[in-house]
Amino acid sequence: MVLSRRGSGSVTLPTGQTLAIHTRTHDEEDLPHATKKTMSDHLRRFESIFTLTPQRMRMIVEAFKETLELGLEQSGQIVPMIPTFVFGWPTGQEKGDYLALDLGGTNLRVCLVTVQGDGKFEITQSKYRLTEDQKQDDGQKLFDFCAECLQTFISTSMSPEGSSQLQDGHKIPLGFTFSYPCTQERIDHGILIRWTKGFGADNTEGHDVAAMFRKSLEKYQLPVDLTALINDTTGTLIASHYVNPKTRVACIFGTGCNAAYMEDVADIPKMKGLNIDPKAQMAINCEWGAFDSFEHEHLPRTKYDTIVDETSNKPGEQAFEKLISGRYLGEILRLVICELIDEGILFLGQNTYKLESPYVFETAFLSLMESDPTDELLMIIGIFSHFFAVETTLAERQFFRALAQLIGRRAARLSACGIAAIVSKKGYLDEGCSVGADGSLYNKYPGFAERIHEGLVDIFGERGRNIVTHHAEDGSGVGSAIIAAMTNKRREQGLYPNL
Ligand code: BGC
Fold it and tell me: Where is the Hexokinase N-terminal domain positioned along the sequence (predicted)?
């Protein structure tokens, strides 16, 4: 709905909850609220710690580039620069029916993708919500759940012809999008290096997740052939190129963040000795969320970022991701608010316990706060009163909105640094290139793309305008299917597993 500037209304949040909002006229009084002056003094303090100057950004880009190079040279680096065994770009003529299973940060999605060639496709899909318990329980149980959802999808969503094809003993090729860092020696296997995005399922790190999933497929006797194990960024790279051949890089800005791009095998020194044609190209899953992990030498971390890190299930890890991705931005803002509560600056005399639990302040609230179109910031009144049972003044609401802008802008500008590092390493700046981007932050956070573009101009000057991000095709559905198609073709040509 479009909010009017005054009056009442409601809005449905991404979580499915409905938020009622209404104009208030006497909201300033009775409680000892912070004054406008106090709030703007505080804002200046936060501006100085959350703002990234162009000079600082350029320093980050330089360090980032060195890290990318190191990851290509040696195995086992913090930013692992994972060779994906996705060889080169799609021709655009890939065809056929494929299943795609996407185990992302929040949902499990099953898709049937009909790839039709000429950049066309059709997709049917179902989504299943993952519980916190499933993310932390035993890994094999998680894969059993994936297989169970796949079974439900096959029996309920596939056409009778599809089902009869299956009864003939035909196995449908499946692309499994598993968006966590995995080292690969071929496309249909992958050892999980570490969980990210708050996952922690036991008995999975250090194991071949493709083999684990195959075990679950056998348990449920599913007529499916796990053809390719892919990362969401790699899928996004291939799907975006399928419809827009100018695509050179793909990024995900969602619960987690990461990028993939196409590299010349000759420029991946750690692959020497594997007998792969040096003239070939291979997609690299950078796993850039790990940039500056453990050492924390390059990124501008505030004390709130340090708390987010130290209280996470993986302290020290995913240092870049923790400043950028949707999983953490709301928590950073909540920690600032809690500090101001403790200092007696905000919500004096009010009961603030609802704001005190970790991760209750969703990143979706930052999006809503930034896009509130009303003079009185009614949306922000609604968020604080409805979810946290606290009253706010206009000065406080303006402060919260400005704080959201600082945190959101920093995330986008850091993202620009990552993109700039790849672009500059590959020499794409003058000819320009398209960057396919996907994920809730990129798609839903107001101004995220514009802020990335501004950041690229701050880093590169006017030439930064040659790098344009655009909303990517569905990498984990369509991309995964196209990669399965490319893999099957290479198999038929006898090129599997290496050229
Ligand atoms: C994972 C990546 C993934 C990214 C976006 C990160 O936490 O490590 O593999 O691509 O999230 O989903």
Answer: 43-242
Taking the CA of residue 318 as reference, the ligand 1 atom at the shortest distance is 7
Set 102, 109, 144, 179: catalytic member: 179
* Inside any domain, residue 58: no
CA-to-CA dists, residue 455 to 41, 88, 345, 417, 460, angstroms: 26, 29, 33, 8, 9
Ligand 1 centre distance from Cα of residue 35 (Å)? 42
Identify the residue whose C-alpha is closest to ligand 1 atom 12. Answer: 256
Atom of ligand 1 nearest to the CA of 290: 8
Question: Which residue ranges have their beta carbon within 6 Å of ligand 1?
Answer: 105, 179-181, 196-197, 231-233, 252, 254, 256-258, 287, 289, 321
Single-letter code of the amino acid located at 399:
F
362, 330 Cβ separation under 8 angstroms: yes
Q: For 367-406, what is each residue's pLDDT tens digit?
A: 999 999 999 999 999 999 999 999 999 999 999 999 999 9
Other Cβ atoms less than 10 A from the Cβ of 425: the count is 18
Rounded to whole angstroms, what are the CA distances from 426 to 167, 243, 420?
48, 22, 10
**Ligand 1 centre from 325 Cα, in Å?**
10
Instruction: Return the closest-CA partner of residue 413 out of 58, 47, 45.
Output: 58
- Strand intervals (E) in 67-220: 82-87, 95-103, 107-117, 120-129, 172-178, 182-183, 191-192
- For residue 249, give the H/E element and its range: strand 247-253
- The CATH number given to whatever domain includes residue 128 is 3.30.420.40
Nearest-CA residue for ligand 1 atom 6 is 256
66 within domain boundaries: no
Q: What is the mean pLDDT of the chain?
A: 91
The best mutation among 237, 251, 252, 480 to test binding of ligand 1, ranked by most ligand atoms within 8 Å of the C-beta, falls on 252
pTM reported for the whole predicted model: 0.92
Spatial CB neighbours of 129, under 8 Å, sequence gap ≥ 6: 106, 107, 108
Q: Ligand 1, atom 1: nearest CA belongs to which residue?
A: 180
Closest CA relative to residue 201, chosen from 171, 221, 218, 178: 178
- Lookup result for tokens 């790839």: 115
pLDDT, tens digit (0-9, with 9 covering 90-100), for 158-170: 865 555 455 567 8
Residue 125 lies in a domain: yes
Q: Which two tokens stand for residue 185?
A: 């020696």
Number of domain units in the chain: 1
179 is catalytic: yes
Domain that holds residue 222: 83-245+473-489
